[in-house]
Each structure stands twice: as C-alpha cells, then as structure tokens.
Design a protein that fits this description.
By secondary structure, the chain is mainly α. It is built from five helices and no strands. The protein has helices at residues 2-8, 13-27, 30-37, 41-51, 56-70. The radius of gyration is 18 Å and the shape is elongated.
Length: 71
C-alpha cells in the first residue's frame, strides 16, 4: 500500500530503490551488502558488478592532460 501511495505522489519507488542499491553496491563489499540487505550473495554480486566503478578511462585522460600541460 505504501508503494502505491508514494507512486501516487510521483515518487517512483523502484527507481529510488535501484539507485540506493547501486550506491551501496559501489561503496560496500558484497558480503557486507548481502548481510545488510538480506539479499542472496549471487544477487549482490550482480549489483556490485553493475555498480563497479572503472577509473581507467578517467586516469588515462588525466595522465594525458598532465602530459600535455607540461609540454
């Protein structure tokens, strides 16, 4: 019932839930996230994989920026 009431006020519960899970998955180790949420470990691993931050592209761009500014 609460979900329907929130949706009636324009608050999309599923979108908010998924955003919160993605944020937690990016910041917490998967065993901790599984314990905190009560989710199965395989489900948590999928969320962690989905939310994994890949900094390689950013680091490459920064290295290129630093190299070009020194020239």
């Amino acid at each position: 019932m609460a979900r329907l009431e929130l949706n009636g006020h324009g608050i999309r519960v599923r979108i908010a839930r998924n955003a919160a899970l993605a944020a937690l998955a990016a910041d917490l180790p998967s065993p901790v996230l599984a314990d905190v949420t009560g989710m199965h470990r395989h489900t948590v691993l999928r969320w962690v994989t989905y939310a994994r931050r890949d900094w390689a592209e950013y680091l490459a761009a920064r290295a290129e920026e630093v190299t070009s500014s020194r020239s």
